[in-house]
Amino acid sequence: MTLDWMAWTWPTALFFIAIAVILITMTVLEVRCPTVARVGVLGLKTTRGDRLFISLLGSAFIHLAWLGLVGSLLWVATLICLVYAACVFRWV
Amino acid sequence: MSSTSMPETGTPSETTLRTRGRGFPVKALVIVVYLVFLLLPIYWLLTMALKTNQEILSTFNLFPDNPTLANFTVILTDPAWYMGYVNSTIYVVLNTLISVTVALPAAYAFSRYRFMGDKHLFFWLLTNRMAPPAVFALPFFQLYSSIGLFDTSLAVALAHCLFNVPLAVWILEGFMGGVPREIDETAYIDGYSFPRFFTRIFMPLIAPGIGVAAFFCFMFSWVELLLARTLTSVDAKPISATMTRTVSASGLDWGVLAAAGILTIIPGALVIYFVRNYIAKGFALGRV
Amino acid sequence: MEKPLNNKAWFLVLPVFVLVAFSALLPLMTVVNYAFQDTFGNNQFFWAGTDWFEKLLHSDRFGEALIRQVLFSGLILAIEVPLGIAVALCMPRKGLWVPVCLVLMALPLLIPWNVVGTIWQIFGRVDIGLLGHVLYSLGIDYNYTQDPLSAWITVVVMDVWHWTSLVALLCYAGLQSIPDAFYQAARIDGASRWSVFRHIQLPKMDRVLLIAVLLRFMDSFMIYTEPFVVTGGGPGNSTTFLSIDLVKLAIGQFDLGPAAAMSLIYFLIILLMSWVFYTVMTKQDEQDQNRKTGGGE
Asked: Does A7 contact chain B (CB < 8 Å)?
């Protein structure tokens, strides 16, 4: 079984490595100091993992919206996502 | 089966009328109309299957003039047709076995313990049940081609695990939740090891759940067309693909097509009575 | 009572994890890889950046398919949910006819999806189908292979035929849990039919109803087989829903890049909706738990 058909490239590989690193970090954090679920502004009970998921999913949509509406300067969208993720971790 | 049951549906109105004893039986009427709406298309398929192709195309009648089983004979004697059923059955059974076997211990873990990432894992399984097969068709084609499984029943069986394993886990978890945890604890105190407890005590307790999970795995694998068609070409071609390809190629032999359709309904129709009380539960992922 | 914490439970989940990772993660990674590249065959790929996404988001084809999809899902929800509730309310609560109703209603649910398509393909044909023939002799201009409106009606009615029973069966399961005493009390109070529905039956159904709505929405959002068999996405593109369009692009034209980009957007929408589904479901489970423990004390 070869991996040719998957057509790996460095940018996408880095993306998945980053996701994997984040997941490992979350696991280690969970062992060191387990999260306490709390109820945020949305009225949902969220743990750290939930907030990460909301941040990632939201970021994907922010990027798509940026591509659809603006088009160029994608890194601005990335900045917005970082702010968004910070907000999610702080208040949701 | 539809033709025999249709006259019966007329009677609920009388029962309701008698028990209520007053007013026009609107409720019964609604049910009867709804059931007629459900059964009419199936009945039509059945009559088509019993007609010859000339009769279908030349005359328009509600009942076949001289019912014939010739269409069914065509299917049961032509390997191009009946091998479709054999292939479908092979991968469906294979998939059901794999799905239920791996789902059993996992469902037990979800129903009895908390562990790290359990909720996220459970959610991830759900997303696979919800994921559109169309998204996976192309990469599956590449994946199974690259490991040399293309056009085998195993490829389709594994591909259908994508939605059937999550389904089985969710349904089984729903059933296991109804078994009190004290039973496990008592068994462990009595010195049962986990595998012995699981196979001797626990599995008989949730036998209906296993049956329902297996039924739904069987069914969802049986009704799926897109992945099964994409992953096969000749040797493992399922009946669903045979049917759609016939339509596009010759497109004229309606009688045989209808007969093939009737034959695919039979497995579901045979077991439907036994699962009637669990249909809602199975479709709702064990959450009713 | 809380479940005990035990990380060894991971060993029990491991087979499922490996199997689903193989059949879900590998393909998804591949889709992501394809989405950023262009290919001219021969397994040669060129970095294309976010071109495909931009093109797709600005293309009419994708937008129209998405609109059709949302319209279809909205339409079938608007028909199937009230109809399913009505049917569930009309079903006998006990007696001999309960199993008969259950079995007959469940029949369409167990028919292979392509056969559902075949049934309606035949049933709706003007020359040999009962529905098409009757409509034609009534003088109604109905032909689902040529007229987009007819095609839409056929596809929607087919889905109503196929799946309304699911809503009805789920609601019926909810209604079954109402004790007779409730109805008797309501009769003594002289409650109207509407207030019985509003204050006794609807609250018992809301849980299953929510599941029914979410399931119907998700499943209709990825519908492929039935409309494909009946109309093949036509006439023109009038019944080309997201999945049909995606398969045309991916398997039909083998346009790996655009197909992968479309898959990703499609998958993200599904992911968002699954999350809503899951959140709602766990919230309900929690409420149930609280109600139970509250009642026990």
From this structure: no
Written as one string, the DSSP assignment of B121-162 is HHHHHHHHHHS-HHHHHHHHHHHHHHTT-TTSHHHHHHHHHH
Those residues with Cβ within 8 angstroms of residue B189's Cβ, 6 or more apart along the chain or in another chain: none
- Is B147 in contact with A30 (Cβ distance < 8 A)? no
CB-CB under 8 Å, B117 with A49: yes
Q: Does the beta-carbon distance from C20 to B165 stay under 8 Å?
A: yes
Q: Is there a contact between A5 and B147 if contact means CB atoms under 8 Å apart?
A: no
Contact residues on chain A for B115, CB-CB shorter than 8 A: none
Q: What is the 3 state secondary structure string of A35-73?
A: CCCEECCCCCEECHHHHHHHHHHHHHHHHHHHHHHCCCC
The partner residue sitting opposite C37, judged by closest CB among A7, A67, A68, is A7
pLDDT tens per residue, range B41-93: 999 999 888 888 777 777 777 888 888 888 888 888 888 888 888 999 999 99
Q: Looking only at Cα atoms, what is the longest distance across chain B?
A: 75
Number of A:B CB contacts under 8 A? 21
Helix (H, G, I), strand (E, B) or coil at B241: helix
Give the other-Cβ count within 10 Å of B187's Cβ: 18
Q: Are B208 and B277 in contact (CB under 8 A)?
A: no
Query: What's the pLDDT tens digit per position in C78-99?
Result: 999 999 999 998 888 888 888 8
Condensed to tens digits (0 to 9), the pLDDT of residues A16-56 reads 999 999 999 988 988 888 877 788 777 778 888 888 999 99
Give the residue extent of every domain in chain B.
2-71, 76-283
B191-204: average pLDDT: 90
- Candidate from B126, B142, B169 with C-beta closest to C30: B142
A5, C30 Cβ separation under 8 angstroms: yes
- DSSP E strand stretches across B33-119: none
The pLDDT, as a whole number, for residue A3 is: 67
Is the per-residue pLDDT at C54 higher than 60? yes
Examine the pLDDT at B225 and tell me if it is beyond 70.
yes
A27 touches chain B (CB under 8 A): yes
Predicted ipTM of the assembly:
0.87
CB contact under 8 A, B126 and C103: no
Q: How far apart are the CA of C77 and the nearest CA of chain B, in angstroms?
A: 16
* Amino acid (one-letter) located at C40: F
Closest-CA residue in chain A for C56? A68
Question: Between chains, do C118 and B247 touch, taking CB under 8 Å as contact?
Answer: yes
What's the rounded Cα separation, in Å, for the pair B233 and B254?
23
- More confident: C28 or C1: C28
CATH (residue range C58-281): 1.10.3720.10
Q: Give the pLDDT confidence of C148-169 residue by residue, as tens digits.
A: 888 999 999 999 999 999 999 9
Question: At the top level of CATH, which class does the domain B76-283 belong to?
Answer: mainly alpha
Packing angle of the helix pair C113-124, B239-249 (nearest 10 deg): 30
Strands C45-47 and C37-39: antiparallel
Q: How far is A42 from chain B (nearest CA, A)?
A: 19
Q: Which of B236, B180, B234, B171 is nearest to B208 (CA)?
A: B171
Place of tokens 């979800």: B110
Q: In sequence order, what are the beta bridge partners of C47?
A: C37
| Residue ranges per structural domain of chain C | 58-281
Range of the domain at A51: 4-91
Which residues make Cβ contacts (< 8 Å) with residue C156, sequence separation at least 6? C72, C75, C76, C79
Domain count, chain A: 1
Categorise residue A8: left if φ over 0, alpha if ψ from -120 to 50, beta otherwise.
Answer: beta
Cβ-based contacts of B117 with chain A (< 8 Å): 27, 30, 49
Tally of CB atoms within 10 A around B250: 10
Residue A34, C-beta contacts closer than 8 angstroms, at least 6 positions apart: none
